[in-house]
């Protein structure tokens, strides 16, 4: 695909490789194994860039994504979505002669899935980081021990340890806030691990994975496995948190210009919610944006253009508010390049086609 026909993802491979190597090194220095989340790119080609760096273990966010990657040689895969009985046919299809890992916070799910499974699989207990999406609450040690005992009594599960996604790191600003959040999570996880060890469970590992903490902290001591995903591309949200620099962002979107309106300082692009999602970012100044305009370059993109932002969104249209000079230079049929607010959702919407640049 070429730029100009449709909105298209531009991927800077050099930056992707740098981002992967940095995270791989951070895991190594923290004494943790590395199981990157592939939901961010969902691409076999980008998967090969990981494999070239000797990364063999992956995380995915759905049974279908596990089928996609495991059919293509990824034999060590964690499905990081609570398991349920409806997906057992997929677990049974994937588990033979490979390492399939699942997660749960539910006694009911363990009993129901155990009955229908045909193979042994690894199982993580998900811990609620405090934002109440999924997971056993930190303070509920009796529920934790009960769940571990039901797993122990099952026919098909092997307890791997405690898994957490501290999604509230997306509300943090700066390294200090991330360090405080991480320390708090680790204190609680260690209390839970100790309770399990005292109840007779050994080899309880800790799996940790959110890009802000995994990127923003110098050390993640105490973690046994690291599973961030977004770090592969980063985005404006991560830059605003302080998890990356703008120069680390490895994904931009090239969008055709479909209208130019100097009288209201706006440019309309083909690039809307079906390409970027409706995820927005509000800066401390109060400015809310859906993306930032960057310089077009022959093989990629350059610096952000001051005062030019993606500010409005409908299904296919995007509204850019720009400076008077920049708007005057735009032409219908040209292209504008945009850094997205959230690269995971953007790539999910634009894949499988992307253009490698840089
Ligand atoms: N693990 C789990 C369970 C997740 O839900 C996610 C993201 O939603 C990740 C890991 C990766 O986190 P991030 O997107 O911050 O890299």
Strand order of the largest sheet: 2-9-8-7-6-5-4-3
- Helical content band: 25-40%
How would you characterize the largest beta sheet? 8 strands, parallel
Poorly predicted regions: none
- The SSE string, one letter per element, is EHEHEHEHEHEHEHEHEHEEHEEEEEHEHE
How widely separated are the two ends? 16 Å
Number of strands: 18
* Shape, per Cα inertia axes: elongated
Sheet/helix structural class: alpha/beta
Number of distinct helices? 12
Please state the average pLDDT score: 96
Overview of the structural elements:
It is a single chain. The chain has 358 residues and is an alpha/beta fold. It has 12 helices and 18 strands. The strands form 3 sheets. An 8-stranded parallel sheet has the order 2-9-8-7-6-5-4-3, with helices on one face. It has a 6-stranded antiparallel β-barrel with strand order 10-11-16-15-14-17. A two-stranded antiparallel ribbon has the order 12-13. The longest helix is centred in the middle third of the chain and has 24 residues. The mean pLDDT is 96. Bound molecules: pyridoxal-5'-phosphate (PLP). The site of pyridoxal-5'-phosphate (PLP) has 12 residues, from loops.
Outline the secondary-structure elements.
Layout lengths: L7 E5 H17 L3 E2 L9 H9 L4 E4 L2 H8 L5 E7 L5 H7 L4 E6 L2 H10 L4 E7 L13 H13 L3 E8 L10 H24 L6 E4 L2 H6 L8 E2 L9 H6 L9 E11 L4 E5 L2 H4 L4 E2 L5 E2 L1 E7 L2 E14 L3 E5 L2 H6 L5 E6 L2 H8 L3 E4 L1
Parallel strand pairs: 1-18, 2-9, 3-4, 4-5, 5-6, 6-7, 7-8, 8-9
Antiparallel strand pairs: 1-10, 10-11, 10-17, 11-16, 12-13, 14-15, 14-17, 15-16
Bound molecules: pyridoxal-5'-phosphate.
